Amino acid sequence: MSPSSQDRDGAGDGAGAAEAAIDIDLSSDGDGESGADDVSAEPSADATAVPTDAAEPSGPAALAPRSRVRLVAFASGRGGTGRSLLAANVAVYLAQAAKKVVALDADPAGGPLHQLLGAPRPPRGFGEFLRGKIGGLNELIVDTPIAGVGLIGGEGSTFGASRPKQTAKATLAAIAALDADYVIVDLGPADSTLSIDLWLAADIPVLVTLPDPASIESLYRFAKSAFVRRLRSLRGLDRLVGNPIGPPPAALDLYRAAREGGGPAERLEQEIRRYRPTFVVNQTRTMPDLKLGNWIATAARRRLGHAFDYLGHVESDETVWLAARRRRSLVAEYPEGKASKNIERLGRRLLSLESERERDRPLGGPLRLEEEQTYYEILETEPGVSDEEVRRAYRLIKDVYASGSMVIAGLYEEHELVELHARVNAAHDTLFAPERRRLYDLALPEADLARAVRAAASSPRRAPSEERPDISEAIIDPTAEITGAFLRKVREARGLELGDISQRTKISERYLRAIEDERFGDMPAAVYVRGYVMEVARVLRIDAHRVTESYLSRYRKSFASPPPAESAT
Question: What gap in Å lies between CA 229 and CA 23, rounded to an integer?
């Protein structure tokens, strides 16, 4: 199947917000790449011919033929998170964006996906395929009241009666054969290996959580379990996992053990950086709930080593249960509701996120164990901040990582928290004292503080040969002047908020807003501005060097310009 013209329009109407000087390609990569490896239980026939240290294939190609079908899989570590609601309504949003969508209820016992789409339960469902009763999934598709959305329902069979015969590899091959642009999968129980395998193989694997400790702990546990499952499929790394009984280990703990024991630490590091779960916080009610997603992503990066992509939040809204009671799609029935607007934003972000991800390339900065982080990294701030900002960062860290904080539910043992707080206290005591901070900066491995800024950031990095922009990046008119307004329009076209960029780069939103508003007097020294603008450009996937030099030229001119003459009185 060849990609349709719709596949080249993944940005919807977002790209139109950019200036005429830029042409943003937010479409899919077109080659079906993903970040999962062969997670089927059965090794390939020629597996013994592969050297132990050979690079394992990654992406859907390790499981199924390349296809234009894009797989988005919704999972959760526990029930009641609203996973099915999000899966159904994201499917509706994509159909409204002129995509051909199939919604797949992958719970063999039958979930509520059909009701959330306003359709009756299909007479035959996904369970028939799993039991090997049919050869493909196309014959299970039924129409729904939503134009452009087909449904493969859950069967509604007797609980506990399912005995799947199909492997993840066969299931993914059947999904790839569907006549669709997107397949939205509502996954079944989290303890099913098939659910984890499908989630790992998805182009965008999404976890859904609620703003409560039990849900957040289950989110971390699912992410850790899936990573362990991923490692078990990789020869040479499977031996690092050990006995599957008991809580799943954190990736950084495995990495520490590999380094100390002479294991394949470098290869494990690549897999840790390549693994990028996406997550949504559902049913938010308070202002702290709105900040929860960025805190979760930061805590997961600190403790687990993975770059979690925060897709966004969905507010608690009475229209959700009203639509559910009427057996109607939320987005179609209440398009002006708060939750519907949130889901539409998730859909735009999802389309943008898919085009941003190059899942075969390890992402993120160098992997750092907590005990190896700089004081700036420990306080989640950057060089050049004021004493007051150091104090605010210290207070926030002490609050977010306090014993009993739901942000870190299930992440830390009590003794680990004690060690973390000791490092936080030491970082504050050093950075809050000007002379001690100056001596500390001089002692950093990076001789130039501009390099320290980039080391503190966690945005995607490129090899020297890849510094030039490629065809997937925005194309900038070489004569155009790069302004803060220009950067804002590119960010909005990408579907990004300032908080998203702040979370990726560790640059405070205050500085990011000053860059876009061109409030040059609120910015630090030029050496820091250069580093900040370059990191922002890399996140936006535009020519970092071109953008930085042009913007720095405006920055310098603002200080060189004479003050306006006073009018005579």
Answer: 40
pTM of the model: 0.71
Round to whole Å and give the CA distance between 316 and 224: 28
CA distance 491 to 498: 8
The segments of the chain whose pLDDT lies below 50 read 1-66, 358-362, 447-452, 454-475, 566-569
Strand 204-209 and strand 278-284: the pairing is parallel
CATH number of the domain bearing residue 380: 1.10.287.110
**Which of 356, 391, 416 is the endpoint of a domain?**
356
Q: Are 217 and 289 in a shared domain?
A: yes
pLDDT for the residue numbered 523:
84
What SS3 state is found at 417? helix
CA-based torsion, 183, 184, 188, 189: positive or negative: positive
Q: Answer for the pair 105, 114: CB distance below 8 angstroms, yes or no.
A: yes
Report the pLDDT value the prediction gives residue 475, as an integer from 0 to 100.
Answer: 47
Same domain, 239 and 192: yes
d(CA 329, CA 339): 12
394-403 — which CB contacts under 8 Å span 24+ positions? 394/424, 394/427, 394/428, 394/432, 397/424, 398/424, 400/295, 400/299, 401/299
Number of residues written out for the chain: 569
- Please tell me whether residues 304 and 442 are part of one structural domain: no
Q: Are residues 118 and 214 in the same domain?
A: yes
Write the single-letter amino acid at 310. Y
CA distance 209 to 205: 13
Residue 530 and residue 548 in contact, taking contact as beta carbons nearer than 8 Å: yes
**Residue 52 falls within a domain, yes or no?**
no
Q: What is the domain range of residue 175?
A: 31-41+66-356
Number of domains the chain is built from = 3
Assess if residue 421 is contained within a domain: yes
d(C-alpha 288, C-alpha 225), whole Å: 28
Would you report the helix, strand and coil content of the chain in percent, each value rounded to 5? 50, 10, 45
DSSP 73-96: EEE-SSSSS-HHHHHHHHHHHHHH
pLDDT in tens, 403-454: 999 999 999 999 999 999 999 999 999 999 999 998 888 887 653 344 445 4
Tokens of 557: 């001119």
